[in-house]
Amino acid sequence: MILLDTDHFSVLTDSRHRQHAQLLDKLERVSDDVLIPVVSVEEQLRAWLAQIHRTRNSREQIYPYDRLLRLLETLGEWEVARWTDDAADQLEQLRRARIRIGTQDLKIASIALANDATLLSANLRDFHRIPWNQKVSGTDCRNGPPGAAHNRFLTPFGATQDAC
């Protein structure tokens, strides 16, 4: 399973983005299921609703309403990864481990960990802090046996980056 972080999900919903076609092409070629974390959906909905609310000129609301509509259309085309008890457990573990990244990113990482999923994100700075290997193998992949299973995440638009 591959989860799209909010940065990639926003590219997916914006056909004018310079990397939209490239991302769609790569996603169509993967054999794993590709899902959108419900937390990314929340972030996108909040952003477009806030922009609509801030914009007083009705004509200037056309673009944010169009993007909100495109977001809803895109959601109909993709499966959404749910927030579950397992994800909540993962979040609690990350908080106990004092991982210092934003709450939404912690939640997205928690969904990935709970589903043994690969996370596609451009946010390397924060997601490098997540102990990806704990959920899958329970060992430190730097010191574990050769080839030990561990989660990883993907760097912007598809280059594989081991999480350890």
Task: Tell me what you see in this structure.
The structure is a single chain. With 164 residues, the chain is an alpha/beta fold. It has a single domain (2-38, 81-162), classed as Rossmann fold. It is 51% helix and 12% strand. It has helices at residues 6-13, 20-29, 38-54, 62-77, 85-96, 103-114, 124-127, 133-136; strands at residues 2-4, 34-37, 79-81, 118-120, 152-154, 160-162. The protein has a six-stranded mixed β-sheet with strand order 3-2-1-4-5-6, with helices on both faces. Helix 3 (38-54) packs antiparallel against helix 4 and helix 5 crosses helix 6 (103-114). Residues 134-164 have low confidence and may be disordered.
Main CATH class: Alpha Beta
Helix content: 40-55%
Poorly predicted runs are 134-164
Distance between the termini: 19 Å
How can the largest sheet be summarized? 6 strands, mixed
Full CATH superfamily name: 5'-nuclease
Q: How many helical elements?
A: 8
Structural class: alpha/beta
Order of helices and strands: EHHEHHEHHEHHEE
Question: Would you count the extended β strands for me?
Answer: 6
CATH architecture: 3-Layer(aba) Sandwich
The CATH topology label is: Rossmann fold
Give the percentage of residues in beta strands.
5-15%
Shape descriptor reads globular
Order of the strands making up the biggest sheet: 3-2-1-4-5-6
From the alpha-carbon coordinates, what is the Rg to the nearest angstrom?
17 Å
